[in-house]
Design goal:
two-stranded antiparallel sheet; 2 domains; two-stranded parallel sheet; alpha+beta; elongated; Arc Repressor Mutant, subunit A; 12% strand; 233 residues; 9 helices
Length: 233
């Protein structure tokens, strides 16, 4: 009997791994993390060591001259339309585009750049009362969530952005946000984000509603810290 080590034929070919990874990313409705991609390969048919990471690098390079790109976001990897062809592709969803008032975008920007922040602190900066519908709508959109409470009388809620917010705007971590001084409108981050000028919001934000999506779960401050520690790795 030959004592020489036999090749392990149970592992998939690296080319097959790349095909599986690409197909999974195209089929998924949300970004896929490395852990989720690794879970595609069972123990009895594993992917060769490092082949998933190599596949991601190869797929990213293969997009050089294509209209899409493979990017790594807060929640994982996904294919997305490149900026130079986005105006043409955006016509696919222009009829169902949701419009956001300046009050909504200003509130979102303050939460993103000064988080965690309370509603009262947002009102202090903007100089007007924040309509409850704005906060509710951003929570329903799963862009913000409650991460704790400020240790002051009344224990006001602390608001922060979510990984869903980072994913939507094509960001891997909060540090990837452009400097606030360079941002004229928050909608510049995402051309799909339609802006509706609200000339009356200087007085108040009443009537600014945009009921979208499902209400996000309000997690604690510890989860906020853990999530953003992951973002900085």
């Amino acid at each position: 009997m030959d004592d020489q080590a036999q090749p392990d034929n149970s592992k998939l070919d690296t080319r097959m791994v790349a095909r599986i990874v690409e197909a999974a990313l195209l089929a998924a409705s949300q970004p896929l993390s490395l852990q989720q991609l690794r879970a595609l390969f069972p123990l009895d048919e594993p992917a060769p060591d490092g082949s998933i990471e190599q596949s991601l690098d190869a797929l990213r390079e293969a997009c050089a001259d294509r209209g899409v790109e493979l990017v790594e976001l807060a929640s994982g990897f996904r294919y997305q339309v490149k900026a130079d062809v986005h105006p043409w592709v955006a016509r696919l969803w222009s009829e169902r585009q949701t419009k956001y008032t300046r009050a909504t975008l200003e509130t979102l920007a303050l939460i993103a750049y000064r988080q965690p922040i309370t509603r009262g602190e947002i009102e202090q900066v903007r100089g007007v009362a924040v309509n409850s519908n704005i906060i509710k709508a951003l929570e329903e959109r799963e862009w913000i969530r409650v991460v704790g409470h400020r240790d002051v009388p009344g224990k006001p809620e602390l608001l922060a952005t979510t990984k869903g917010f980072l994913d939507y705007f094509g960001l891997k971590r909060l540090e990837d946000l452009p400097p606030l001084s360079e941002l004229k409108d928050f909608g510049e981050l995402e051309p799909q984000l339609s802006f509706e000028d609200d000339s009356n919001n200087a007085a108040n934000d009443s009537g600014d509603t945009m009921p979208i999506g499902d209400i996000a779960t309000a997690d604690g401050a510890d989860d906020y810290d853990n999530e953003h520690e992951e973002d900085t790795e």
